[in-house]
Amino acid sequence: MQRIFLILLMFLVCLSCNERKNPISSDSEEGFVVIQATFVQTGAAKIAIAPTVRADITFYNSENVQIAYSDMSVSGRVVSGTVKIKAGSGIRAEMHCYDGSGNLTYTGSAYDITIIKGETNTVYITLTPKQAPAAPSNLQAETISFSEIKLTWKDNSTSEQGFIIGKKEGTGSFTYLSVDAGVTTYSDTWLKSDTQYTFRVQAYNSAGNSAYSNESSAHTQPGPSNLQTETISYSEIKLTWKDNSKNEQGFRIERKEGSWSYIEIGIVGTDVTTYSATGLKSDTLYTFRVRAYSTNGNSEYSNESSARTQYQPPAAPSNLQAVTISYSEIKLNWTDNSSNEQGFIIEQMEEGSFVEIGTVGAGVTTYSVTGLTADTQYTFRVLSFNTLGTSTYSNESITRTLTDIPDSPSNLQAVAISYSEIELTWTDNSTNEKGFRIERKENSGDFIEIGTVNANATSYSVNGLKANTQYTFQVRAFNKNGLSGYSNESFTKTQTGGVLTVISGISMLYIHGGTFQMGDISGNGWYNEQPVHTVTLSSFEMSITEVTQGQFETVMGRKPSSWKGSTFPVDSVRWYVAMSFCNKLSDQAGLEKCYNESTWLCDFNKNGFRLPTEAEWEYACRAGTTTVYNTGDNESDLSRAGWYDGNSGLDTHSVGRKTPNSWGLFDMHGNVCEWCNDWYGSYTYDSQIDPTGPSTGSGNKILRGGCYCNSAGACTSACRSETNPSEEHQSIGFRVVRRP
Q1: I need a labelling partner for 627 at 20 to 30 A (CA). Which of 172, 269, 392, 656 fits?
Q2: What are phi and psi of 127, to 5 degrees?
Q3: What integer pLDDT is reported at residue 638 of this predicted model?
Q4: The pTM is what?
């Protein structure tokens, strides 16, 4: 007969009674159950295996048999389950039996099982009862801090799979968590401060849970209490509190202003019970609260405590300066250092003691003291005040009134002479002036001083003004003792600007002659831009842009430039070539040639084209301005007017793309350096009329305006460069002028 080897894989026994006794054999070893199952394998037939056991045998295939059995050996007790037997020899299978509630009651093993089909077979199964573990005991709960309680207990079992810890807060319900077998301590953290907790523990394994241990309770430590606040000043409140915990890491302090929300403002260390809140607003209510903290969390908050800062007296003014205005007036200026003053009190020393001479309102920082005695020393001081009191005094400041200053001039009249010149006249009412100071403002701007004249002068010519622009003037006399009052103001508008004409395709602007200060007016330029000197020029015409490559090619029939573009300035032109261009352009326009092509000397009386003199170039560039550039003093002003290394990309650009000066001339700053007619020479202090430069020079000719590859400092109105007239660099070009 074919033999099939089966291994018993699983045996489930469900017990309905609570006793753990041998359900079949009363004489077996205590704690064990021996089941003897004898059956004949005959297919799916039901076969009685033992007097008290019956089994149903079901074939799954040639190797698997399932035995369903019921044990009714004990009255009133039914044990039922399923045994699976798999063919095989020498294999030992573990067995587990469960009662009707799903609790593990027995474990055991099945030895080699051989089932012979058609024969009676006997199977012996030994089961060991599974019991719940013994209950732990001696549970103790110890308070560690405001957020931690430590538990310890005795482990009375050797078969637990772990422990279940129950915890309840106050009179609430228990909640549970588990720890591993053999563990006898547990620290419960993140608890509420000042709260009673009760604990209990039970062991568990697969057979069930033990009884509970004793219950043990502990109370977490309270957070800080008795918080008190004390106002120290208008900007400080001091806090104190009671420390009720043992092992906090520190305390967190929170504050709210008025009815706003709390914010944390500080942390202090272990056992610290004071804190000073500083930098507060004056006359403001603040509320505080404190709580302890550790790595396990924060305690509950302390009580709240409130205090109001004091009202702040104003800070003392400073930097008091007494400035003499006249023989009878001194002006006081000071710095206001407070934000809550109601005003300032001004005091003046008289006969050795200070007396109050006036008050001004909040925010006022000037006061004029009038009706004073001429040539007399005065001492002043100032303090601020509000309803809380007064500040300390400012510094004292001393000055002396002037003696015998001149009377003010009167009847000032301004008359426009041209588009760039206004003539001033006035009446001299004093006999002791040293001279007069003339001030001007453009449109609605501020007055600036533009010149001085000697005693007894009653007129002044203002040159280099913008065309069609309103100017206002005022004049006052001065001597060693001080300044008179101002004259009346007088205003007028300059005439419309120069006429623009086009000659042989080149646009020429008529520039009215005038007088200007030539050289480095700002005092920040190069040494060769000094000294500043007075220059007077006759009227002339100047091309509004540098000569372009297209214009040059039209006249000369060639393209010498390194940078290409018909509207770009012509470059790489020698000084001699530029003069040759002027003569050919004069021929084409039917004008007189200015240059002798044998000597290259210029006849300035001819009406043809020529290079500008250095003085004409600077006069036209400035267009009445005295600033570093004709658009202002800053590099940002240059960027609006010309191409230089800060905005050019290191190449030239089409002419006329930048802002022109006030007379309508383009690219006077940057793009290409421009040849002038003059030989290079040093300036002198002498005043000059229509200067043409040295008759001979260092061998170099003047270049003005700077170029695309120059820094901002080399593109100013006053900057001078020089180079050999045979130089034909890609940064050099020119523009033309003529006398009409």
Answers
A1: 656
A2: -115, 140
A3: 96
A4: 0.40
